[in-house]
Amino acid sequence: MLLLHVLSPFGSRQTALLWIGLLFWLATGSACRSTPAASDPPERLPNIVLIYVDDLGYGDISAYGAQPGLTPHLDRLADQGMRFTDAHCAAATCTPSRYALLTGSYAFRNDASILPGDAPLIIDPAQPTLPSMLQEAGYATAVVGKWHLGLGRGHVDWNASVRPGPQDIGFDYSFLIPATGDRVPTVYLENDLVVNLDPEDPISVSYREPIEGVVTGRAHPEQLRMPADDQHSETIVNGISRIGYMKGGEAALWTDEDFPFLLTEKATSFIQQHQDQPFFLYFSYHDIHVPRLPHPDFQGKSGMGPRGDAIVQVDWMSGQIMTQLDSLGLAENTLIIFTSDNGPVLNDGYEDEAVEQLGDHHPAGPFRGGKYSAYEAGTRVPTLVAWPGHVQPGVSDALLSQVDLFASLAELLPADSSRETGPDSEPRLAAWLGKAATGRQQMIEESYTLSLREGDWKYIRPVKRNRPTWLKDKNIEGGFLAIPQLYDLSQDPGEQNNLAVRYPERVAAMEASLQRIEAAETSE
Ligand code: NG6
Ligand code: CA
Known about the structure:
Blueprint: H1 2-7, H2 13-27, E1 47-53, H3 72-80, E2 82-84, E3 87-88, H4 94-103, H5 130-136, E4 140-146, E5 173-177, E6 189-190, E7 193-194, E8 204-206, E9 236-237, E10 240-241, E11 245-247, H6 259-273, E12 279-284, H7 305-327, E13 334-340, E14 383-386, E15 394-396, E16 400-401, H8 405-410, H9 429-432, E17 442-446, E18 450-454, E19 457-460, H10 469-473, E20 485-488, H11 504-519
Parallel strand pairs: 1-12, 1-13, 2-15, 3-16, 4-5, 4-12
Antiparallel strand pairs: 2-14, 5-6, 6-7, 8-11, 9-10, 13-14, 17-18, 18-19, 19-20
The structure holds 2-acetamido-2-deoxy-6-O-sulfo-beta-D-galactopyranose and calcium ion.
Residues 54-55, 94, 289, 341-342 line the site of calcium ion.
C-alpha cells in the first residue's frame, strides 16, 4: 500500500517498476560494489556408485561374451558407458583387492591375504582412505554388502559395539556381511551392531577350535542341502555348512536367499535418503561367491545352475539401482563403476553344479587362470563406467588398476580437497572416464606371487613354495611355477608361450622394476 502510494504520483506502470528496481538495487547495497554479490554456485559433485561383484569373471556377462540376454541391465550400462578390456582388480582374491581399492596401497605392503571371519580390521583408521576422502569433501558415504576387511581389534565381541569398522575409515553408514557368505558369523552388522541380536542368546565365534554343541556338516552331512568340501564343513546355517564355528545368535542368522532383495533395499534406501547431497555408495555384492543360493525368483533363470542364476541376480540388482537413479532424476549426475574383486572360480568348496552345468560359457573369457591365479583371468575383470555427458559410450583398452580409483576419484574434487591418497594410487581419471586411451605404464597383479604388467608384457615372478593342495583340487591354473614366466599379451593373450628364456634381459629388467616398486616408500 505504502509503496503504491509513494509511486503513484510518478505515473505509468513501467515507470513504477523502474523505481522499484532502483530502490531494490540501493537497498541490497549493489550500488556500492563493482562486482556481482555472489559467485556462481559450484557445480554439484557427482554421486559415485561403485558396484563391486564378488568373483565375477571377465567372460561372465553378456557385454564380455556371455550368452546374449543373460545380463540385459548390464548390457544397457555397457551401451551407455565405457567398457574396459584391460582393467584389473589389484589381486586375485578378495581381501587384498578390497584393501587396495579402499586404501590405494597394494595389499602386499600390509601382508593382506584372505581373512578369517573373526579377523581384526586391517585398515588403520589413521590412514587416508577413499571413503574418508569423499566424506571430508562433503559426500554421504555408505558400504552395503560384503566387507571381508576384518572388524574390531583383537578378539571381536559380536555382542557389543564392533569397532573399529567402516565408520572409522570414512563410511557414514554400513550394512554388512562381515566376511564372506561361507564364513561365520552368518549375521548382518548394521553400523557397529549385529542386527536382531537377542541379548539372551549371545554369539560366540571361533576359527581355532570347535565350540561345544555346534552342529557341523562334518558330523552331520545328512542335514546339508548342498555337500561341501572339508574346509567348508563346519557350522551349519540355513542347511549349508560354513567355515568356522559359531554358536548363539539364532534370531540374527541370515537367510542367504534374501541377500539380493535385502541388500538392494539397503542400498536404495541410502540413495533415497541422500539424493539431495553428493553420495558415495560402495555396493558390494555377495554374488557370485559361494555358497551360491539364488533367491527362488532367479532359480533356473540362466540354464547354468546356481552360478549362472547368481549372475542373473547380479544383473537384476544392478538394474534396480539404475532404475532408481533414473526415477529420482539422479542418473545424469551419477558416476557408476561396475566391476569385480577377482576372477572367476567354478568349484570353490560346494557341490553346486557350477562345472557340470557350464555348457559353452567361458567365465574367464579368452584369458588363462581364474580366481587365486597369477594368470590374467585372476585380475582382469569386467569393468563398466557410465556417467551421462561425461563418459562417451565406447570400448577402451587402457591398462587400469582399481588401486588407482582413490587418486583418480580425488581428481573430481575441488582443488582444496585433501589429496593425500595411497602410496600406489595413480591419478588416472581421464583413462577411467575413457578420455585418455592409455592408462598405467606399470601395474602389479597380486596372487600367491607378484606379476608385473608393462604394456602388453607380463612377467610372473617364480614361486619357491608349492601351490596349496586345495588350489589343485579346484582345478585352477594358478601359474605358480619355480621358473620365471614372460608373456607377450599382444600376441598371446592366453599366456601359452613362456618367452622368459628367449628374453632374459627383459625378465631381469621387469624383476628389477618389481623390486623397485616393492621397496618404494609407503605413506607411513
Ligand atoms: C578360501 C575358501 C573359498 C573362498 C575364499 C575367499 C577354499 C578351500 N576356501 O579359503 O571358498 O571363501 O577363501 O574368497 O578355497 S574371496 O573371494 O573372499 O577371496
Ligand atoms: Ca572374491
